[in-house]
Write a sequence for this structure.
């Protein structure tokens, strides 16, 4: 039983840690399109074929039972096309607008994403469908995914830059304040401590990782339960691998992913 977790870089590790918790017996292939990172600034007409090609090669090579697209920028653009092309289940990562709309008390919440994700029709449709009664602020950051990627591989974070990037998420209106910020880029949960440090007031930061892992479990259903019941279950994680499209990850990245149980493919 193999699950492929795909992202442009290392952000999908925020989804992977929940996949480990919810599906401990699955073998993991983490596919990082680091050669093309970051996806946030790519034009859609170039990014769709890029995503399709990389995932298509990954499927041909590793034959996964399910693919988690652990990237909002890719999911909001290419999920429909991927589902049309391949006959295996896909779980996407899209902005958690519906839960935010259900949970907000003030009626003001923000979606913090890449520049690509905030421009997508998919994201706008989610807001129109699920949050028509809320006031939603969409904030696209040019630099946070890169800052998170560098932070994960050992660089320090300039809190002033982080503060500037998240500042537009905080809205005050008619005596009410933003009370939820949706983390709509899988890199951002790794910066949550920095976000908390510079936030002008406390908010709930919504990370979709656990519901995504649960959706993967639901889609795999009996297929997963059979593996999990058998003696071959992979709780040691010894079969988990990571494939970098650059074929040339830095030393820090290799060290980091080994902490997630991933060896180089
Ligand atoms: N981690 C990705 C996401 O969830 C994208 C980061 C990037 O490549 O810009 O959107």
């Amino acid at each position: 039983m193999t699950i492929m977790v795909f992202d442009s870089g290392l952000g999908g590790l925020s989804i992977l840690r929940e996949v480990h918790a919810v599906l401990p017996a699955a073998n993991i292939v983490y596919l990082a399109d680091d050669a093309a990172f970051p996806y946030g600034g790519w034009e859609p007409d170039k990014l769709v074929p890029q995503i399709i090609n990389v995932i298509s090669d990954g499927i041909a090579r590793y034959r996964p039972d399910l693919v988690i697209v652990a990237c909002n920028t890719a999911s909001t653009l290419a999920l429909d096309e991927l589902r049309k092309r391949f006959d295996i289940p896909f779980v996407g990562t899209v902005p958690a607008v519906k839960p935010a709309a259900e949970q907000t008390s003030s009626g003001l919440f923000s979606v913090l994403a890449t520049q690509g994700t905030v421009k997508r029709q998919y994201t706008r449709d989610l807001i129109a469908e699920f949050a028509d009664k809320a006031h939603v602020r969409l904030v696209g950051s040019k630099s946070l995914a890169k800052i998170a990627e560098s932070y994960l591989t050992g660089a320090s974070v300039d809190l002033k830059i982080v503060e500037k990037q998240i500042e537009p998420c905080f809205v005050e209106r008619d005596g009410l304040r933003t009370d939820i910020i949706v983390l709509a880029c899988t890199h951002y949960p790794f910066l949550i401590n920095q976000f908390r440090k510079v936030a002008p007031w406390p908010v709930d930061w919504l990370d979709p990782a656990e519901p995504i892992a649960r959706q993967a479990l639901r889609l795999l259903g009996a297929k997963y339960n059979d593996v999990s019941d058998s003696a071959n279950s992979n709780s040691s994680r010894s079969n988990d691998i990571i494939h970098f499209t650059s074929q040339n990850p830095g030393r820090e990245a290799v060290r980091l992913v080994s902490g997630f149980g991933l060896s180089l493919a």
User: Anything to note?
Assistant: The domain at 97-205 is CATH 3.40.50.1860 (Rossmann fold). The chain has a mean pLDDT of 96. The first helix runs from residue 13 to 22. The radius of gyration is 18 Å.
